[in-house]
Design a protein that fits this description.
The protein is an alpha/beta fold. The chain has ten helices and twelve strands. It has helices at residues 53-59, 87-101, 113-122, 143-152, 162-172, 181-189, 208-214, 224-228, 247-255, 277-288, and strands at 10-18, 21-30, 38-42, 64-68, 106-111, 129-135, 140-141, 192-194, 200-202, 221-222, 234-239, 261-265. The strands form three sheets. It has an eight-stranded mixed β-sheet with strand order 1-2-4-3-5-6-11-12, with helices on both faces. It has a two-stranded antiparallel ribbon with strand order 7-10. It starts with 9 loop residues before the first strand and ends in a 5-residue tail after the last helix.
């Protein structure tokens, strides 16, 4: 069991560099700070480190769990140039985070964008990633899914109440699947920041949409060479109704590159939230497989 006090997160930060200066990346650290077994969990495009609270709480007796806010999200700094909200910058920031954690190797769990960052890191020569979990993320993203994300990314939203914000979150996040009233409220509250006038806004830098739209391909987005370069054991979680990770792509991921193990989550689209014990159990079993008790 985790020692008293380590089942709640510690708020930390690390200074990172970009071509336009320095910025601070915030992260939550769970578990024994002396534990050399490290799990890094990275969120999707408009989410934050808080998405992994349930999973981190469940796994922090086995791992030191680090959950960063990517640049421009949550408590991390905004970037000076919005066109730096791209994969190379995220990858650089996460290498700096791992150095701060003083970890020779890490397990990596990434949801959507966080999975793509993890895949890119795992593909590098000398990578510290020893096990990789891709939560509804893969090396081919269908054009309709990119267009769906672009339709809401960066909108200057303001909500007069938490209730109004929750109605919006339930609408755009319906593919997350069934959740309790308390879980929907948590997904809402962790997505918001308070304005001076008492209204609420999304937590992320709306300028993230500029880089996203600038990088939109004419067709599907593919980066199979990155995936094929991954050599560590890999688990792919796929929402059975996902529009971002197709069943055909997941099947191809099982055949090539690291020959991932694929687990499909019924009744969920993009993406499984990992709030539910059965979803957490799939991740736990994979990460602990082969580990010395």
């Amino acid at each position: 069991m985790a020692e008293p006090g380590v089942a709640e997160p510690r708020r930390r930060s690390v200074q990172c560099a970009s071509p336009k200066g320095l910025h601070r990346i915030a992260y939550l650290e769970w578990g024994d700070p002396r534990n050399r077994d490290v799990l890094v969990c990275v969120h999707g495009m408009t989410r934050s480190s808080r998405d992994f609270d349930e999973l981190a709480r469940a796994l922090c007796s086995h791992f030191r769990v680090a959950c960063p806010d990517l640049a421009g999200r949550g408590d991390s700094d905004r970037l000076a140039d919005p066109l730096l909200y791209v994969l190379p910058q995220y990858l650089s920031d996460m290498v700096t985070l791992i150095a701060r954690l003083d970890a020779e190797s890490v397990c990596w769990l990434g949801t959507s964008l966080g999975g793509v960052v993890g895949m890119a890191l795992a593909a590098q020569a000398g990578t510290p990633v020893k096990k990789l979990v891709l939560n509804d993320a893969g090396p081919a993203i269908a054009k309709p899914a990119l267009e769906r994300i672009a339709s809401y990314l960066g909108k200057p939203l303001s909500f007069a109440s938490l209730e109004a914000a929750e109605r919006y979150i339930r609408e755009i996040s319906a593919p997350f699947g069934p959740h309790s009233e308390a879980q929907w409220r948590f997904l809402t509250e962790t997505w918001l920041r308070r304005n001076d006038d008492g209204s609420w806004r999304p937590h992320y830098d709306l300028r993230i949409a500029e880089a996203f739209r600038a990088g939109m391909p004419k067709g599907d987005l593919e980066f199979w060479p990155l995936y094929d370069a991954v050599r560590c054991p890999t688990l792919v979680l796929r929402g059975a109704d996902s529009d971002l990770l197709s069943r055909d792509t997941a099947a191809a991921m099982a055949r090539r590159g690291p020959k991932a193990r694929v687990a499909e989550i019924a009744g969920v689209g993009h993406a499984p939230t990992l709030f539910h014990p059965d979803q957490i159990g799939i991740v736990r079993d994979f990460l602990l497989e082969g580990e010395t008790p």
